[in-house]
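If you are new to this repository, start here. Below is one unmodified record pulled from the training split, so you can see the exact layout before writing a loader.
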Amino acid sequence: EVQLQASGGGLVQAGGSLRLSCVASEFTFDDYAIGWFRQAPGKEREGVACITSSDGITYYADSVKGRFTISSDNAKNTAWLQMNSLRPEDTAVYYCTADVPYGSACLTKAWIWGQGTQVTVSS
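And here is the target side for that same chain:
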């Protein structure tokens, strides 16, 4: 069964950092674009960052540029989202995703969704 397992969420104060991890199973990581979406209560789901695993090209939402960094290790079938300078508005459930790579489309859609991990940023 194709799975994405996200972890690393938690409670952090504003200005702090968290690192989310995503481990994939039962599919070849480097054939996909791996991404992170988030959804806050009462808000639309938002694509945060994604990376095309074959060439390492990254894409970011404007709201996180300069603060978040996505990376991946194809040999480990693992991706990470390093989140720095966190703000209360970053509070959301974060989901790891995978999609067929097609430029920045990985910020707007996904084919495979993992379970979410809660990130809470206190002011």
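Two things worth knowing about this chain: Strands lie at 3-7, 10-13, 18-25, 33-39, 46-52, 57-60, 68-73, 78-83, 92-99, 112-122. The CA atoms of residues 34 and 98 lie 5 Å apart.
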